Amino acid sequence: MRELPKPGNETYIYVRESGEGTTVEDALAQAMVRVFQSTANRLGQPFDSQKVKNALLSGTDYKVVSQQYGIPVNRVGIYSTQLREGVYWVYVLCQVASMGNVTPVWDRVGMNSRTANWVALAKSIVVPGLGQMGKDHLAEGLVTLAGEGALIGSGIICYNIAQEQLGIMRTPQVSIDDFAAASSKYSTAQTVSYVSWGMAGALYLFNLIRAFAVQPKTNYDITFHPTVIAAPYTVSPSVSLTLRF
Predict the structure, then answer these.
(1) Is 52 in a helix, a strand, or coil?
(2) What are 3-23's pLDDT values in tens digits?
């Protein structure tokens, strides 16, 4: 975000805040608390930041908090990133009332997510689960990647075991008992390897479907007053969103 967009009327302004936490949810809650705090200070209204943070972390929608405190806040953009292991940073752009007890008028303009879905699909084609991670479904992406690796790995291991037993079976002058034992192990290992690879293929296809269809946990939709839209938004890889007016 290079600069704050200009509001379409005097009833609201744009506010940007950031938060840091051990999870995206924690960082987002901190950022939203700061938005509410700065708005409450501007409007001269009492505000309990810890109570609001606890409510947001427990799953209460920020719109409910907005109504409870009479602080009109409308979140229009979110960008999240991982600073380092176990530390996340979230940046939010919000429309807030500039005058007490005034509710801004919003018109919704949904950002087309089709491009994001194709990008996620391309990522998961290369690395299973990467598309889900890019949409903030980190646990699902990691489980998919680990599952794919485990299934392919077990298939390779069992295939190698089967080849070893096949080598024993083809050894000249092998005893009947050894041949029977090797034959049984060969059949089992070969079957397990095929099943593992089949399951890996099914998981890979499911991974592609999920990467394309799953909705981001972070809402990237934009909401604007119609008079402020002067040019289409552009997406910047470095800051996720660049707004031009």
Answers:
(1) helix
(2) 677 766 677 788 889 999 999
